[in-house]
Amino acid sequence: MKQRTLAIIKPDAVAKGVAGKIMARIEEGGFTILAAKLIHMTDAQARGFYIVHKDKPFYASLCSFMTQGPCIPMVLEGDNAIARWRDLMGATNPANAAAGTIRKDFASSIEANAVHGSDAPETAAFEIPYFFASLEIHPR
Ligand code: CMP
Q1: CA 14, 86, 26, 46 torsion: positive or negative?
Q2: Ligand 1 neighbour 58 (Cβ under 6 A)
Q3: What is the number of alpha carbons within 13 Å of residue 31 lying toward its C-beta?
């Protein structure tokens, strides 16, 4: 089943200069990048994006991390894209991430964990339009 997911190459990975390597893994993984842009989020934008975590102890620190530099949100499309992108990313905490996953290879900590991916279709339905207008998404 063809599906779309929202991916973000986070500020730690952009700052390290590994965004291109991560995009290569995305393309090699059989995903089509339908939209992508480099943005530097404001605190309000980060807080809105991660609103589901507003009561978590790491919320303030997470929002501060996500605004420390530019990040690259993308819309990925492919068969079973939500679960497959999560598999390619690896576990949230890189200490638990499997060999060969993006987080194992590029993440620094549970917070600075290189990439983000929607965790369910309903989440993708909120996250994709959070960053992209329909005219910025290029089906093909
Ligand atoms: P992400 O997949 O973007 O979803 C929420 C983010 O919060 C997570 O990746 C991490 O960057 C960050 N985070 C920081 N601490 C934790 C934690 N203890 N558990 C889960 N996520 C955390």
Answers
A1: negative
A2: yes
A3: 29
What is residue 27's predicted lDDT score, i.e. its pLDDT?
A: 98
- If you take atom 2 of ligand 1, which residue's CA is the nearest one? 116
* 0.85 exceeded by pTM: yes
Half-sphere exposure of 79 (CA within 13 A, CB side): 2
With tokens 């939209």, the residue in question is 35
Which H/E stretch holds residue 20?
helix 19-28
Residue closest by Cα to atom 1 of ligand 1: 116
Taking the centre of ligand 1 as the mean of its atom positions, its distance from the CA of residue 110, in whole angstroms, is: 6
Structure-token pair, residue 117: 């991916």
